[in-house]
Write a structure and sequence with these properties.
The chain is mainly beta. It has no helices and 9 strands.
Length: about 110
């Protein structure tokens, strides 16, 4: 069975306590996140970003208050790494500065066995 590669584009990650869902609501199957990239879109300043998975057990951080220089980006998954999300997991992000961070998530939807 062929794998179903997908991506989710999110502009202007929120600074609110109710953070931005950066991966399709909630995982409805076992999915593999193969890439998460944050880009600083602020005109003049460095920014920070949090990224975490939330499930019934709480929040599990991938990165917290990670700095991104002005004009720079941050790749959270590289070198063939993956993060497995199971049914009910939700991938969230929170920016330290309003309207300053875009995000691209690449994932394999419904991993075949």
């Amino acid at each position: 069975m062929a794998q179903d590669f997908e991506r989710k584009l999110t502009a202007n990650v929120s600074t609110a306590d109710v953070t931005t869902d950066i991966l399709h609501g909630a995982s409805d199957s076992d999915d593999a996140v193969v890439g998460i990239r944050f880009a600083n879109t602020h005109a003049t300043d460095a920014v920070t970003v949090d990224c975490y998975i939330r499930n019934a057990g709480g929040n599990y951080y991938i990165v917290k208050a990670a700095p991104i220089p002005q004009g720079g980006s941050l790749e959270l998954i590289d070198g063939g790494s993956k993060i497995v999300m199971q049914s009910g997991d939700v991938l969230y992000a929170k920016a330290g500065t309003a309207s300053s961070v875009d995000c691209i998530v690449s994932y394999v939807d419904a991993i075949s066995t």
